[in-house]
Amino acid sequence: MHIHYKRREVMALQNDEQSSVLLDSQAHILNYAYSFVRSMSLKYAIELEIPDIIHRHGVPMSLSELVDALPINKERSQYVVDREEREGYSLTPASRLLLKEESLNITPLFLVFLDPIMLDPWQNMSKWLRNENDINPFQTTHGKMAYELAVEDPKLYQSINEGMASDRRLVASVILKHSKGIFEELDSVVDVGGGTGTFAKCIAEAFPNLSYINFDLPQVVKGLEGSKNLSFVGGDMFETIPKAQVVLFKWVLHNWSDEECAEILKRCKEAIPTKENGGKVIIIEIVLKDEELGNKTLETQLFYDMFEFTTTKGRQGYKIYPVLGISSVIEVYP
């Protein structure tokens, strides 16, 4: 009788359109509240080395086998063990990018985005929108810009460099496989904001006749050794950029305001020859509203744009080549 009564209650609720809409709306809002669980769960999976454990197992791994292999307090395992054991876990192409031994491992980049220092500004977005002084929510939260804090915090500085290096390594591999034409006809390139030279080394090695300059702040390139066709030069892009046929920016210009980007591009014009003589600027950046991209990729672009909005200042004849997933190659001519 009791069960029958409960079923009638459920059916009545399902037939009540107003209550159904109310509960669906509640679930919709709570879904936003709980969305952080996805990214945090992946963070914990990386910290527990779950992708590496599954990879070393060699065959699909049952949940109980995985739990036994995890470096955790086994008393916690009661919350995760599936007693039916019908499924095994193996790696997807995406999860392989999290393997320590994977040359294109992007774990460092993922962990930079989830560093508490980078997440805290999201708590102050509304506060920043109300004030008139701070450039972005990061400054509202920490009292200084991200790059200024990184100079003072060796751990943050290292994690940012490692994150950018992992991304540049992956982008370089895709360019060398599918878009080598970008560099094949060039004599010289200056990579502005090239960091510790991960991207530069890949390109310089693939094109031994190309003169490649990795240009960044003096403290970034200090002590780095080049090669026959690769050199590391320290300086300030707002003052002068080393002369070359092409100036390259990879995820750099989004850090700066429109006015500052205009100043940087002026320095570029001084550094390169005319368009007729092969001079151009190559920009690798995320370009929003690319109609050819799928919904998931576009969503990732928008998320990244919002992330940059909280931590940086930003948002001529040119061509855009959407060949790098969420990023595009943009050629700008003087």
TrEMBL record:
One Pfam family recorded for the sequence: Dimerisation
Annotated ranges, domain O-methyltransferase dimerisation: 31-99
GO molecular function, one term: O-methyltransferase activity
SUPFAM superfamilies: S-adenosyl-L-methionine-dependent methyltransferases (SSF53335), Winged helix' DNA-binding domain (SSF46785)
Domain of life: Eukaryota
GO annotation (BP), single: methylation
The UniProt record lists the keyword Methyltransferase: yes
InterPro entries in the cross-refs: COMT-like (IPR016461), COMT_C (IPR001077), COMT_dimerisation (IPR012967), SAM-dependent_MTases_sf (IPR029063), WH-like_DNA-bd_sf (IPR036388), WH_DNA-bd_sf (IPR036390)
Entry annotation: catalytic residues: H254
Keywords of the record: Methyltransferase, S-adenosyl-L-methionine, Transferase
Segments forming domain O-methyltransferase C-terminal: 122-316
Homology family: Belongs to the class I-like SAM-binding methyltransferase superfamily. Cation-independent O-methyltransferase family. COMT subfamily.
PANTHER family: O-METHYLTRANSFERASE
Name of this protein: Putative O-methyltransferase COMT-type, S-adenosyl-L-methionine-dependent methyltransferase
Phylogenetic lineage: Eukaryota, Viridiplantae, Streptophyta, Embryophyta, Tracheophyta
